[in-house]
Amino acid sequence: MVKTYVLVLDDERADLASSGGKGASLAKLRQSGLPVPDGFHVTTAAYQDFVSANGLNEIISNSLKIVSVDDPVTLEAASTQIREGFSAGIVPANITKAISSAYIKFDDEQIFTAVRSSATAEDLPDLSFAGQQESFLNVKGEEDVLEAIKKCWASLWTARAIGYRMRNNIDQEAVSLAVVVQELIDADSAGVMFTANPSNGRRNEVLINSVFGLGETIVGGRVTPDSYVINKDDFALISRTIGEKDMMTIRVEGGTVEQAIPKDNQKIASISDTQAIALAELGTEIEALYGMTMDIEWAIENGEIAILQARPITALPEPSIDPPTEWNGPHDRTMYMRASIIEQLPDPATPLFRTIAPDQMTKSLGALVSSVMPKFNYFQEYVGFTTINDYFYMFLKLGKGIILRMYKDSIPALFGGPEGGFLKWGATYWKEEILPDYQKIIQKWKSKPISELSSVILLEGSRELLYWGTRMFTGVQLVMPIVGLSEGFFTIVYNWFIKRKNDPKASEFILGFESQPIRAEKKLYDLAMWVKRQASLKDVLLEASTATIAESFLSRKELDGISKKYWEEWTNRFKVYLDEFGYAIYNLDFYNAVAADDPRPVIETIKFYLSGKGSNPHTRQKELANRREEITEATINRLGPIRKRWFQKRLAWAQESAPFREDSLAAVGLGWPLLRRMLRELGSRLVEVGVIENRDDIFWLEERETLQFAEALDLRKGILENKIEEVENRKMIWRGQKRAIPPQILSKRKNLLTWMYKFAGPAGDLEQTGSEIKGLSIGGGVVTAPACVLHGPEDFNKMKAGDVLIADITTPAWTPLFAMASGVVTNVGGMLSHSSIVAREYGIPAVTATGVATIRIISGQMIRVNGDAGTVTLLNA
User: Is 120 a member of any domain?
Assistant: First the structure.
């Protein structure tokens, strides 16, 4: 059979298999009459026969055996071996002849060509592979074109391309490469166009980026391009931003170079508004041709537009508004702080939580204050909760003398009252006073069949559970100062009067104790080890996607490949785990799922343990406890009577208090699985009558609306307004707000209180720039590793062993990720935050209270975390 080595550019046979992703796309565009420069394809058959004729398959196979995807050295070594083989290879005569025949048409003094790689795993709807292979511009002459084609074939095996395919489970030896040879457009301007706006996800906007000259400067990110946003509905220009373009790429003999642009011309628009609109019209036509949003490369020469490439957009966010820029509290003489319970609300609140929670949170805080400090009967007049741009703030009205009055009235509660003041009994108040009542409320609602409750009662029950959950959190506010004071006093006594050079740190004396997150981690590890002993079950769970495992568990449908016996035992054991620990919250807003109703993050951790990674938490805790006991005994044995008494008394208080913080915080979410089930039941009823599209859309309704709908459902009368469009609009607003950085404090008046908050608040300077980010020093040493930015449990599957965990905050539900992390960096948190405490347990560097970590750091970026200095250095900023 005669093989086809060359196809004209618009040949109908040019498909993914023969011409690669780029080539197939260009063929489709040119077949549709779009302005694509003429050229031809060198097919994958030519690549395959070149590889076969030069014995390169064996070189490829042997080279790949040494590769570890997490080791750049092995990737580079394999790439070098393979590419040297390609460089030494000789193109068979029949392939050379076919290429020469096709090139005759372009062998003209006035025509230069672009020789561009086109892989069979490229420009796909789910994986773009953008930039993985090489292209060569301004190539002229048959000999140079043939050499450029060989270089394109070899570029299939760059270290970057090998690693990308490995991470995305692409069969390395099944991929192939075609090459597109096209007439080069000597562009006056060029750029990229997105038929949906990637910055805000809006599908009705076209975004165009443009520079002078060829498009290499914009693809390489070496200049700030001009930016145009155009409305697809009427092709009106929404915005124009002219970038400072200090260089451009131009043709020279044998290739291209970058040329400086004179200062006076750097702010001149590279294209006109009319050209931008014409591009948008072409982009919309291309989008219609493909039936999906597209990423398009284009160029303009002498006023004529040419389309150079079109690929699907693979990572388009959901639509959002622009982030808010104004942050004003409703009252002038009031200080607004993102502190206390607000630390558990890092995102803007969803409408239902935003409209239900402030009253419940204020009532729960008032109840705590009344029980602890009865003289504070005026408390709720001056302190409460509100939202600004849907972010929660705690407010404090700065009335004349009110701060002094509060301090004066709080002193008796510190040392007086029952059992000698809350410094003595506050650590257990949550457990002995609040927890039993919370558990009774949960049991009361659990005993009622949810499906039989009226809609109004479902809403009432969710309010009550929310109140007791926030009541539990206010109880944590008694624990925090006690844990802080006990550890602080012990540290001072130890560092000033006990510690000698090279003695252990004070923190080592309070590590290795049991807490709810540690118990959950150990139970999860035990479950993973049980699975590991059941070989067939282990293999299926490792091979199946996390989403598939979660769906099968929740729907009680067996996974293929697991016997009924093992399936039932696995699901029973997993259910027992989730019943005991699946209530831990990632975020106080009940919109966010917990593991009990979305177990995917927990399954990810099980798979992590099954793959042989992570340490045994039983062993780790035992080693910490043994170390604690050894250094305690050694220290006591060398002290005299007075210092021994000081040491033992302070240490006993610190060790007794240490576990309370994590236990009390973990208990906040006890009612959340039930609360969410009740609200989702109400959501399902609203779906049935057409009010909302999905049951979880109930979280996007406000309390007033939800109550009206609930009453109408119970009475079976009244007009139930369709809220589907309104819900989508609220989601778009929320997504935009989520991109904002809320100020930690808002106050129009500067005084001692605002200064104290800024100095000791839970987050650092939001205006930090440069390559070093400063935060709170937690210790643990120094580590250099890739960053992994996680915004919530939906991102947990992105975490790889050895990454530095970057988050806004962490809660007890995040603990399993610490087994994978080499370090931790958070926006918010103090010495007693969850991330600080657990990082110390794991002995990994941690920096908290950076304020900007999730904004300044990009996933995959190499960073250095210095837990002793409290700094994070961006190494490839």
Answer: yes
